[in-house]
Design a protein that fits this description.
Blueprint lengths: L2 H11 L3 H10 L4 E2 H7 L4 H13 L3 E6 L2 E6 L2 H15 L5 H7 L5
Antiparallel strand pairs: 1-3, 2-3
């Protein structure tokens, strides 16, 4: 697989709002599934599917302690990626009028 194909697959994985929300929750540190469920309006089976997708993509990891499964971000780069997305979205969009006004007219 080429790098750009792998990147496209990563961004497809991130293209689901529930997965983004799960990753945001996990930025606080290792979190039990029950706490993730408490934050989301989801069925447990749906959350399980979303966590499986995130695990396969290498974005989260899971550890079991007794009957509790803790999920966490797989690497600090996942949090950095979320921060980059937040920074991009927080920029004030440039209006079309502003762009047109900046283009010099020919006389």
């Amino acid at each position: 697989m080429k790098l750009y194909d792998a990147k496209a697959e990563l961004f497809r994985t991130l293209g689901h709002p529930t997965r983004i929300r799960v990753l945001e929750i996990l930025q606080a540190g290792p979190t039990p599934v029950r706490d993730i469920l408490a934050e989301l309006d989801l069925e447990a089976s749906n959350l399980s599917q979303q966590l499986a997708v995130l695990r396969r993509a290498g974005l989260v990891s899971a550890t079991r302690t007794g009957s509790t499964v803790l999920y966490e971000l797989a690497t600090p780069e996942v949090a950095a990626l979320l921060a980059a997305g937040r920074a991009i979205l927080s920029k004030e969009p440039v209006s079309t009028d502003g762009l047109l006004a900046a283009i010099p007219t020919r006389e």
